[in-house]
Amino acid sequence: MVHHYDIAIIGLGCAGSHIVHELINQNVEKKIAVIDPWSDERPEKAWSFWEKGAGKWDHLVEQTWSKTIVLKKGHELKLDLEPYVYKTLDSKKFTAFAKARLEQSPHITFINGSVETVSKQTSNKQISLENGETLTADLILDSRVPKDFYEDKKSIKIFQHFKGIVIKTTGDHFDPDVCTMMDYTLMDEGTCSFTYILPYSKRSALVEFTYFSHKVVTESTYDHFLKKYIKEHLKIEEYQITDVEQGIVPMTTYDFKQHNHPDHFRIGTAGGWVKPSTGYSFKMSEKKARQLVENIRDDRKLDHGLFSKKSQLYDATLLDVLDKNNGNGDEVFYKLYSSNKMKYFFRFLDEETTFLQDLRIMFPMTSMAFLKPFFAHLPKIFGRNQG
């Protein structure tokens, strides 16, 4: 027997989990399937974000910070994040919370499995699983990145890739009230690369070496820079590694929206929900999931209110600069942080600023390196359909 659903969600990652929460919160009474190759052994990652004060995920949050520092050679910025708070949570706990909620819902069925193919039927879509099972749905929300993205040669593709280790020390080495957003004092020459630190206590922290670059490096390269930074910059000789995380996040001008259809809609990374200029996705996915579910509930076009062409233009401009001048990323990001108060900068990254506020933030960046790509991408983006 082939089961039919109103909505099928492929993938219970960041975006899929946010959508599940919104479907339940907004009382969408449709027959829904969530398909995911669930395993309790799935890798654990630190998902970090900023928001004003208390938030609805605080019961899952591992640590918060009200101050941060940004460094490059010879310079250090100490920044107060107020009224924002920087937070981090465990990805496994967040997705497990979504799974627990959906299993309590009378409208949602969880299917543990992997999707092999999606095919068009006369009046709906058929989903075939790797175990041979099939189901149909009127609408598919799909988190799988389309293969065309990897084959595309026209868009800018920069990857945020990283390896992080949680270390435990015998002495006090960290300030648990201050995180390090970007430390460019140690870089892999010719690349935009930096160290990111989330202190959990005076003796424990996530230390991560991160790239915004065109190519992923070998694991031994991450290890080299992590060891060098811990020894020479943190002055720590002895430590224990208690956890490891790695990841690759695309930062791209690729138009994922071209793959959207009224009955098959891409979500998460596959839908362009990652902020292209920063690689942050948690709060962006939360915001877009809320809008998408409102659109489903109110029978609007699925992409209504999801994307801002203005923000796409700013993201494309910054990506173009990083694409052509990758080794100068430290100068670009340090100037952005040093020229703006964090409360305005975070609003800008959250795509919540007015055009006048945008101009104030972007004005310090108005060199030829920025103006040329800005005007090059302007007609491409504003001449493109949103859907």
Give the structure's gist in a few sentences:
This protein has 387 residues and is of the alpha/beta class. It has 3 domains: 3-50 and 90-151 and 253-297, 3-Layer(bba) Sandwich (FAD/NAD(P)-binding domain), CATH 3.50.50.60; 157-251, 2-Layer Sandwich (D-Amino Acid Oxidase, Chain A, domain 2); 309-382, no CATH class.
What does this structure look like?
This protein is an alpha/beta fold. It folds into three domains: 3-50 and 90-151 and 253-297, FAD/NAD(P)-binding domain (3-Layer(bba) Sandwich); 157-251, D-Amino Acid Oxidase, Chain A, domain 2, CATH 3.30.9; 309-382, no CATH class. It is built from ten helices and 17 strands. It has helices spanning 14-25, 91-103, 147-151, 219-233, 282-297, 309-324, 329-338, 342-349, 355-362, 368-382, and strands spanning 3-10, 32-36, 46-52, 61-65, 67-72, 75-80, 84-90, 108-112, 115-120, 125-129, 134-142, 157-169, 178-183, 192-201, 204-213, 239-252, 264-266. The strands form three sheets. Strands 1, 2, 8, 9, 10, 11 and 17 form a seven-stranded mixed β-sheet that branches. The protein has a seven-stranded mixed β-sheet with strand order 6-5-13-14-15-12-16, sandwiched between helices. A hairpin with a 2-residue loop joins β14 (192-201) and β15 (204-213). The mean pLDDT is 95.
